[in-house]
Every structure is written in structure tokens, then in C-alpha cells.
Write a structure and sequence with these properties.
Number of helices: 5
Shape: globular
Helix content: 40-55%
Strand order of the largest sheet: 2-4-5-7-6
Strand content: 25-35%
Oligomer: single chain
Largest sheet: 5 strands, mixed
Number of strands: 7
Radius of gyration: 15 Å
Structural class: alpha+beta
Order of helices and strands: HEHEEHEEHHEE
């Protein structure tokens, strides 16, 4: 099972050279990552997917969801006492749609949260602190426009949610 997940992880990350892939494939990529990590962190976390099926053929940048899941695991769940949970939800809107990665980990304190939010929204990267989030957001903006990207909410001690907002662009 783990070898199959690793093979899927590599295959989807290559995506035959395409930068934009269907949400369906990006979700498989994130799930493959979670399967591999569940072997590493046995009994430390669970995960769930709740995706509006109308979104599965919409396009997104490859390697968009997996870095957010990785952050949820390493910065939220890993440092939490007891079992954690990561949820990936996809919801349709009127003119765009949202993919949200939520964890019930340790959360981010207010000062740090403001720093990360400001850096991402104002395109200011200082050091390597939040390079993954910054990179995901910038690739979304480059492909879809400034009104799209990622938005972070967190309550210290309770968890973090990262929303990815994307336009409807269907695979052909």
C-alpha cells in the first residue's frame, strides 16, 4: 500500500509536465502523501476528504494541496498531544471554489499569524519561514490572477485552516 502511494505521489507530481491538473489528481496526490505519513505517524492522526464532486474536473496548480497538508501535519498535528485530524474540503461557490485544509493541531499564535498573512498577501518573503505557503500562493496568482490565492485562519491551541480560492477552469 505504501509503495503504491509513493508511486502515485511521484507520478502525479510529474503530471507529464503540466502545471495545471484536475482537482481529482491533486487530491490523489495529497491522499498518497497522507497514506505514506500515516505509516510514519501511526495512531497520531486521521484524515478525511469532503469534496463537492462538481469540482473534480476543475484545474488547479499541481502540488497545491499537499504542501498545505504537510504544514498541517508538521506544524499543527505533530506537536499536539494525542490524536489529531486533518480535513480537506472542497466547496463550490458562485464564481469560484474553495479547497480548505483544516487541522485541529496547536494553531498559530496571533503575532506569527499576522506575520505570515502579511508576507503572503503583500508578497514579502523574509527568510525561509513560510516559503511553501508563499510559493503555493504565488503560483496560483500567476496562473489565475491576484484575486485568487491562499488565506489562513488560526486560533492558537485549537487549529488552523488554510483556504485555497480558485476560479472555475475545467480540464478539456
Amino acid at each position: 500500500k505504501m509503495i503504491g502511494a509513493l508511486a502515485r505521489l511521484f507520478r502525479i507530481s510529474i503530471s507529464r509536465g503540466h502545471e495545471l491538473i484536475p482537482i481529482r489528481d491533486e487530491l490523489r496526490h495529497a491522499e498518497s502523501y497522507l497514506v505514506i505519513q500515516s505509516y510514519r505517524y501511526r495512531d497520531r492522526f486521521a484524515y478525511s476528504f469532503e469534496i463537492d464532486e462538481s469540482l473534480l474536473d476543475c484545474l488547479c496548480n499541481k502540488i497545491t494541496i499537499q504542501p498545505l497538508v504537510e504544514n498541517a501535519l508538521y506544524h499543527g498535528i505533530k506537536n499536539k498531544r494525542g490524536m489529531g485530524h486533518i480535513s480537506i474540503r472542497g466547496e463550490a461557490g458562485e464564481k469560484d471554489f474553495t479547497i480548505t485544509v483544516t487541522d485541529d493541531g496547536i494553531g498559530i499564535d496571533e503575532t506569527r499569524l499576522r506575520q505570515v498573512q502579511s508576507g503572503i498577501q503583500n508578497k514579502v518573503l523574509t527568510g525561509k519561514d513560510f516559503y511553501g505557503l508563499y510559493n503555493v500562493c504565488e503560483r496560483i496568482r500567476l496562473n489565475f490572477g491576484e484575486e485568487y490565492g491562499i488565506f489562513i485562519e488560526s486560533v492558537y491551541g485549537e487549529g488552523t485552516s488554510v483556504r485555497v480560492i480558485l476560479p472555475y477552469v475545467e480540464a478539456k
